[in-house]
Design brief:
Blueprint (H helix, E strand, L loop, with lengths): L2 H24 L10 H13 L27 H19 L6 H30 L15 E7 L5 H17 L4 E6 L2 E10 L8 H13 L6 H7 L7 E4 L5 H4 L13 E6 L8 E7 L7 H14 L4
Antiparallel strand pairs: 1-3, 2-3, 2-6, 4-5, 5-6
Pfam families: CCB2_CCB4
GO cellular component, one term: chloroplast
Protein name: CCB2
Length: 310
């Protein structure tokens, strides 16, 4: 092979990447696909028609893990840590050198400040929640007038249905302003959780508690707004929202023993059962106007999801 031919091949191999780049730049590009405003609106409308929430309305709920210690509220964990840290600081100071070195004194002051902050964290969290409505429950069940804390599931339900009802009630109680949740279908209350009316709560007896709630709910007048929401006969009666207690009397909700005396607002969301029939997700709170539009939309989405399990 001649030197001239070898040189031409080397030059050609070096220019090959340049040629490829030039070809790529010269190649026609496909125009970007632009989604028209009309199409975007149609997609969002279709999503909302199916019972889902649009991208602008989705609020990601973060579930926290709990220690599961009976009678212990996990929000007091920082306080326990702060008290333990303070006790260790006292022990360290007593067993330390005398006189205490300046570096140790500075560390102890910093540790005492952090321990005090940990002790105050639950109170700070409560004040922040009071200042920012729509960020979770405000009061414990025992602080609501005429209420008793409880969690009852119908024993005859399948395991999958029990898990779904437990998830739904937990998510609503932890991430909205409601204080109590109940699910009723076929004239029976299948699940109740949170701050419930003390008159229908039998501690440790789920069957008796649910039976008392079911009997009370079946006594609601068929012409009342609560009964219409349970039946969901018309499109306008799929959701009953009573933002304050003033509307309880005319809607038939004032006689519900399921609601504690301190309940100030009520939401009854119809559950569209595959075979039809009265069913509803009942949510209430000790605060008036506790559920914003987004939260009421979330309740409607949860009710649609529960339709396959109740």
């Amino acid at each position: 092979m001649s030197q001239a031919l070898l040189a031409n091949r080397l030059i050609g191999s070096r220019l090959c990447p340049l040629r490829q780049r030039a070809l790529r730049q010269a190649a026609p590009c496909k125009p970007p696909v632009v989604l028209s405003r009309r199409t975007s609106t149609q997609v969002r409308a279709e999503t909302q028609r199916r019972g889902g929430l649009g991208d602008d309305d989705i609020d990601v709920a973060v579930f926290r893990f709990t220690l599961g210690i009976p009678g212990f509220d996990d929000r007091f964990i920082p306080r326990v840590v702060g008290l333990a840290l303070g006790a260790l600081l006292v022990v360290n100071h007593v067993l330390g050198a005398d006189p205490t070195p300046e570096a140790q004194v500075r560390c102890e002051w910093l540790g005492a400040l952090l321990a005090s902050l940990c002790v105050l964290v639950p109170d700070i969290e409560e004040r922040l929640r009071e200042a920012m409505p729509g960020r979770g429950r405000q009061k414990a069940a025992e602080a609501i007038e005429g209420s008793a804390n409880g969690f009852f599931l119908e024993p005859s339900l399948q395991e999958a249905a029990k898990k779904e009802l437990a998830w739904a009630s937990f998510s609503l109680l932890k991430n909205t302003n409601c204080c109590g949740v109940a699910v009723a279908a076929g004239g029976r209350v299948l699940m109740a959780r949170g701050a419930l009316g003390s008159g229908v709560v039998a501690p440790g007896n789920a069957a008796a508690s649910l039976a008392a709630m079911s009997k009370d709910l079946s006594a609601v007048s068929g012409s009342s707004k609560v009964a219409e929401a349970l039946a969901g006969a018309a499109a306008g009666s799929q959701q009953l929202w009573l933002p304050d207690r003033g509307g309880f009397g005319g809607s038939g909700a004032g006689s519900l023993a399921l609601l504690p005396a301190g309940a100030q607002c009520l939401l009854v969301q119809h559950i569209p059962l595959p075979g039809g029939g009265p069913a509803a997700l009942i949510v209430f709170s000790e605060r008036p106007r506790a559920l914003a539009d987004r939260e009421r939309g979330w309740v409607a989405a949860v009710a649609n999801k529960l339709a396959a399990f109740v």
